[in-house]
Amino acid sequence: MAKKNIALSSLAEEIKCIEKSNAQSDFLYLCKDYRGDDLLKRIMTCIERGADINQTDTNQKNAIQLLCENYNVKDFMQIMACIIQNGFDIKKHNSSVLRCVLDSSMDRCQQDEVLRLLTRYGMNYYSPSSNLRKLRDKDGNIRIGLIDYLVENRKTLGWHEGCKNCQEILSIDEVGRRNAQNYFMFENVYTSFVMLQLAQKTAQSRRSDVPIKEWKIQEDERLILHRLQKELKGGSDTNELNCNNYELYLRTMCSVAKSLNHEGVVEVIRWFYLLPFDFPIRSCKLSRSDQEILKEWDKTLEKFSHDENDKDYGELIKDFAHNQCFRGTALSVVDLLIKDKLSN
């Protein structure tokens, strides 16, 4: 009986090895050549069977590179997100992935959405191996504000495994975290609101702000903006903002900006603030409680952009979180200038 159980166990292991081997070979084939509408389902099945997401083919191309050649397939963005969220190593494949996206024949709108996805999960644009020529306008400036900001300041978004700075941020207690997040959320919402008002005033050639009641927008959006305006109080009190409505406020302002043709405002909100809501955080090697804390910090992801080798960055954030003097103060002048510049 014991020998029979050993034999059955050995057979089961052999079957698993065969399934994994088949999943490995199927995975890259699917990314490169499969055109069926069920590609997402097939990719997920390969991952469940143990396919190595970071493997490369005989030409040293990884899954994301191959998908960028197959970008017209149904559910393309969902497939890209699925592969990245299940462990694709952007740091390892950084230069090859960036190059294939910029060299792809996909249109600019689709390319920008792929770049948003990669940026959210830590794409490094300032690496010496990163060629950004195709991201630059005729004047030499990078055409996407957030990427330009990350290059200029040598930063990446995302949370880094084994990063001392990230660990310092995670160690901040609940009171400090809530204080800091309240302030950061207020900054982001206030900045977006000011930019939206400025864009509307400029569009109508007005010297003063255009009352929200005169904006040609949906009535439900108007009500939300009125509520937000009351909570912001001209930037004088950060404590009045209902942080539970943070995403709602951002999405409403983004929608209003789009309907009023203020594309500069749309870009800032989508790239700087909505990335963590459009693309869920990846699971990290953390305890369940730390993973929940990480999700809270992640809501203001752009505030914690840094290089893993930055010295004392985590300590600076910790000091800020426990410094009560920032509460009840107005928007950071530096952040306002950055976003105003991007909206012009």
Largest sheet: none
Number of β-strand runs: 0
Distance between the termini: 78 Å
Number of helices: 16
H-E order: HHHHHHHHHHHHHHHH
Write up what this structure looks like:
The chain has 344 residues and is mainly alpha-helical. It has three domains: 1-79, no CATH class; 89-157, no CATH class; 164-343, no CATH class. It contains 16 helices and no strands. Helix 10 crosses helix 11 (246-259). It is globular.
Task: Draw up the topology in text.
Layout: H1 2-33, H2 39-48, H3 63-68, H4 76-85, H5 94-103, H6 108-120, H7 145-153, H8 164-170, H9 174-203, H10 219-232, H11 246-259, H12 263-273, H13 275-278, H14 288-298, H15 313-321, H16 333-343
Helix pairs in contact: 1-2, 2-4, 4-6, 8-15, 9-11, 9-12, 9-16, 10-11, 11-12
Q: Nutshell version of this structure?
A:
By secondary structure, this protein is mainly α. The protein has three domains: 1-79, no CATH class; 89-157, no CATH class; 164-343, no CATH class.
Keywords:
single chain, 344 residues, mainly alpha, 3 domains, 16 helices, 0% strand, globular, disordered C terminus
